[in-house]
Automatic annotation (TrEMBL), chains A, B:
<dbReference type="Pfam" id="PF01425">
    <property type="entry name" value="Amidase"/>
</dbReference>
<dbReference type="InterPro" id="IPR023631">
    <property type="entry name" value="Amidase_dom"/>
</dbReference>
<feature type="domain" description="Amidase">
    <location>
        <begin position="39"/>
        <end position="445"/>
    </location>
</feature>
<protein>
    <submittedName>
        <fullName>Amidase</fullName>
    </submittedName>
</protein>
<dbReference type="InterPro" id="IPR000120">
    <property type="entry name" value="Amidase"/>
</dbReference>
Length: 460, 460
């Protein structure tokens, strides 16, 4: 097993650096480059790779080019609308778009148009961003994957359910793609495709107009760089707000400054037992490197509060699956009535069990989730952020299984912000490390992420 | 002005008693009546009154009759599915239905089918209820009203935005109709049509699959009787759950027992200044009657906590309008792009202002709402429930203006359960009184409502 700390993603990082949208803005303003030219480079990459990667369900190149031209004019006039004016963006096909069908990874929605934009799409268009196309999602954003392949090794899964968004960014087709996470759909594919993945605080970016209304559904970003992940998230929330009733994403409209964390808690969770000795060793080396830079590293063995948290979060995946399964009975039961093959057997089987979850059981599960969140909040005084893996290893071979969400589920159940950083390598494939912050402190987490990247000599 | 306490709605109450679904169940079981026969009586009333009332947008009588026959068979076998097996229900046309279009009161959605049931519709069908048709809503559930007239006086508004649901129940066309409330859309039309209106704790009944995702949107019931309001709500929540992440509606599957409250706080709010002396006098007489039955009545003049609450809730309507306006920019901005007449000028004008609300302002408004809620929670120890009016007076003449939501907004901003009871009469028209309880104590509030009705000699 080839396990190394920085080798191949430093190559990959150079690739992505070429794509980092934010770095191009000065050139757009001075006229040596333009959003239209940037878009054409993205389209060229799509032409080269899409046949084998299959990241997109549909694209609107005519509109994308027209919107890029309009953006080019705004830069020429010195008046871009926002930090993402002209940024080409892929949108997970759970989100409605006025110009393209929203097919939700299901044959039931083949060709279905709703003639309106989801809130985030509407907001990003207002900010001047370019909606290039819809990216493949697993059926209803859950299990049964689409045709997408991992761009770094097409015999492997790109992860799910934001398969297309993860792969499109991993292949360098777009600098940023929108995803969602309920269990592990942002952090896991980010890890498998070597991307930066950002799962914000629950509700921080408006997810209205998406086929995704579970109580852990959160809208986030796959990006080729930390900077683009931040500016896309910030501008999306600035123009679209947060989910109704939520304060949205706090922060400023520029890339976060690097911030050295005081103390990180090294978290194992139920995922640790599923990792190979090589992966564990790799993670420990990375944590050691951080510790050597003067960060206090704590863990379950030396801090009783961390141990309490670890023990409370142990059943996170089971609790999450039952909470979301219960909530997902709608609309699945309604779809199921349309015919024997309306929903995949994969989901139909699960639905039978979900239907048996009692209301009282669900209430208890919500209470358990609250308890885990309280345990997490208790770490606030002594721990700046948690650090753990983003996945148990490299993207699995084959396309049927999108990989284990066991590490990603931690930030999902907490409703807390998390970022996956493409810092490790296993089997010649990327593996992410995950840092998890506290609710509404997303910006602070970006600062920590930036600092961590800096000690591994990465341009972020 | 003809202002009386019990006269005409006691007649009306007899009418509604004939319709009370729950009272028919023993006859369904013994075979002297049937859900099919009950449905036909509803249809007969519709045939008689619909031409002038115009409560429905669409109906599916073929399916309703088939479903009623299936229900009749279940009763004959002694195996009804729930307390609402066979209950004909009208559904506000914001909620999706697999068999009928969901037109949202907007020409943009004319004839639009989504081929799926909203969560509450799916749940009620599973409980054996009969979805009779879709009821008229104001445009997008907001301002511009549809053609519906008040069944008690067709020169008057039925209120909005749940105009059709309020009128359908008021006309005796259905025992129960589903509505929603963001500002005043359940409590106000209930008052105007002489119905019982129930606005549950925020999130208590699953509103997924409705064009209504604002942070105060709540699904509730218009009903001809308190008993039917409860059983329809309880079974809806039992089969459909609450909104994702919410515990749903607490209670039991039978009509609540009458419970005499220990203390009620007589609440004025900003609405009091808008009431005529006659209406105030009428309300004071009613409160006096309750006091004479041994309930401790407190108010802003004799309880400093009530005064604090009154003063915090004073700007409730402005805060609500700005919160919901900000949240409603999506999907309105997306609709607006479709053409100059895509949305009414009424809404378009408001949208311009809503677009100018800053994210920071919205965050402050959310904090103000939280403060009002805290002030309310502080009354818990000394006050069993709040009592106030449901509207400033009778339904206004004309159809253009759906009436002032100033009294209804109190329970909306609190997220607390509220019930409108048709106990007063002004100008020969009904006027409701509103009782407001505490979050998740909806069942307790039904007990209090039942007790209040009992002292006015009403069968509930």
């Amino acid at each position: 097993m080839d396990t190394e700390l920085t080798k191949n993603k430093s190559n990959r990082n150079n690739e992505n650096k070429m794509l980092t949208f934010y770095d191009h803005v000065p050139r757009f303003l001075e006229g040596s480059d333009s959003p239209r030219a940037y878009l054409e480079r993205c389209i060229n990459t799509i032409i080269k790779r899409e046949a084998e990667v299959q990241a997109f369900v549909s694209m609107n190149l005519v509109r994308a080019r027209a919107d890029a031209d309009a953006s080019t004019m705004r830069y020429a006039a010195g008046k871009p609308l926002s930090l993402v004016d002209g940024m080409p963006i892929g949108v997970k096909d759970l989100f409605e778009t006025e110009d393209l069908p929203t097919e939700v990874g299901s044959p039931l929605f083949k060709g279905k148009c709703t003639d309106r934009d989801a809130a985030v799409v509407q907001g990003l268009r207002e900010a001047g961003a370019i909606i290039l196309g819809k990216t493949v999602t697993a059926e209803f954003g859950f299990y049964s994957p689409g045709p997408t392949r991992n761009p770094l090794d097409i015999t492997r899964t790109p992860g799910g359910s934001s398969s297309g968004s993860g792969a499109a960014v991993g292949a360098g087709m777009v600098p940023v793609a929108i995803g969602t996470q309920v269990v592990g759909s942002l952090i896991r594919p980010s890890s498998f495709n070597g991307n930066f993945g950002f799962k914000p605080t629950f509700g921080a970016i408006n997810s209205s107009g998406a086929h995704s209304n579970l109580s852990q559904s959160v809208l986030g970003m796959h990006a080729g760089s930390l900077t683009d992940a931040w500016i896309a998230s910030f501008e999306a929330a600035r123009f679209a707000g947060g989910d109704p009733g939520h304060p949205g994403l706090y922060g400023i409209d520029e890339p976060m400054m690097s911030t050295k964390p005081k103390a990180l808690a090294r978290i194992e969770t139920a995922g640790w037992q599923k990792c190979s000795p090589e992966v564990r060793e790799l993670f420990e080396r990375l944590v050691k490197r951080i510790e050597e830079k003067g960060v206090n590293i704590t863990d379950r063995f030396c801090d009783i509060n961390v141990e309490s948290f670890e023990s409370s979060v142990e059943p996170a995946l089971d609790i999450t699956n039952d909470i979301c399964g219960y909530e997902f009975r709608w609309p699945l039961s309604s779809y199921q009535r349309r015919g024997p093959n309306a929903i995949s057997s994969n989901i139909a089987q699960r639905l039978e069990r979900w239907k048996s979850i009692e209301n009282e059981t669900y209430r208890n599960l919500l209470q358990q989730r609250e308890k885990i969140r309280s345990q997490h909040e208790r770490l606030k005084d002594s721990v700046t952020a948690l650090i753990t893996l983003s996945a148990t290893g490299a993207a699995p071979k084959g396309l049927e299984y999108t990989g284990d969400p066991i590490f990603a589920v931690t930030s999902s159940i907490l409703g807390a912000p998390a970022i996956s950083l493409p810092l490790l390598e296993v089997d010649g494939m990327p593996l992410g490390i995950q840092i998890i912050g506290y609710k509404h402190r997303d910006a602070e987490l970006f600062g920590i992420a930036r600092w961590i990247m800096s000690i591994f000599d990465h341009k972020v």
